[in-house]
Amino acid sequence: MQLNAKMIGAGVAAAIAAGVGYALLHKLEDEADFDTVTREGAFSVRDYPRLLVAEVVVPGLRQAALSVGFTRLADYVFGKERAGGRLPMTVPVLSDGDEDGRGWRTRFLMPAHASIETLPDPVAGVRLRALPARRIAALRFAGPDSDGQLDAHEAELRAWIGAHGLSPAGPVEHAFYNSPFTPARLRRTEILIPLAA
Questions:
Q1: Nearest to residue 87, comparing CAs of 57, 134, 49, 122?
Q2: End residue of a domain, out of 131, 160, 176
Q3: What is the pTM of this model?
Q4: Are 107 and 48 in contact (CB under 8 A)?
Q5: Among candidates 138, 124, 133, 143, which has minimal Cα distance to 168?
C-alpha cells in the first residue's frame, strides 16, 4: 500500500515536471497586435489592424481538417516546397468554416511588415489574403479544444455579447496559440466573434 502511494506520488511529480518542461521549452512566437477596448475576466473586446494571412481550406471533420491545413501551411512557412527561407511564425493560428461551406479553413498570420508582393509565391492550395481591420469579441480559455468544448465556450461568448448589447458581424473563429504537443491544461485557446462597428 505504501509502495503504491510512493509510485503514484512519483508519477504525479513526473507529470508535473513534464508539463513545466513543455512550458519552459516552448518557443514563444510573435503575437498579432491588437488594442483592448474592454476586458471582463476571460472576456474582452479587441480592435485588430489589417492582417495578412496564408490560408488553406480542407474538407472533412474539424480536427482532421485543421491538422491537414496546419501541415500545408507549415510547409509554406518553413519553405519546404518553395524557394526562399523560413518565414517568422506569428500566433495565433486561426480556424473557421469557410464561406462556401466546403470545409474548414486554417490561417497562419504573416509577419506584420510583410505584403502580398514581398511574400514568397504560395504553393498549390495555399492562398494569401488580407483581412480588414475589425473589432472582435474574444473568450480565452485553457484545456481541451474538442468540438464540445469549443461549442460550449462559443455559447458563453455569444451570451456575453448579447448581455453587453453588442452585435455579432460574422462567423465564429478559433484561435490557437500553442504547439499541439503542449499539454491541454497549458494551452491558450480563444473563441473569436467579429462585431458590428
A1: 122
A2: 131
A3: 0.82
A4: no
A5: 138
- Assign 99 a pLDDT band (cuts: 50, 70, 90): confident
Q: Are 170 and 115 members of one domain?
A: no
Tally the domains of the chain: 2
Last residue of a domain, one of 131, 162, 179: 131
Percent of the chain whose predicted confidence (pLDDT) is above 90 = 67
Predicted confidence (pLDDT) per residue in 38-47, tens digit: 999 999 999 9
Supply 68's cell numbers: 491537414
Cell digits of residue 98: 469557410
User: Does the pLDDT value for residue 25 go beyond 70?
Assistant: no
User: Does residue 51 contact residue 130 with C-beta atoms inside 8 Å?
Assistant: yes
Same-domain pairing of 38 and 58: no
Most confident listed range (2-6, 51-55, 62-66, 122-126): 51-55
Domain hosting 79: range is 50-131
Contact by Cβ (8 Å): 45, 133? no
Clarify whether residues 81 and 13 are in a common domain.
no
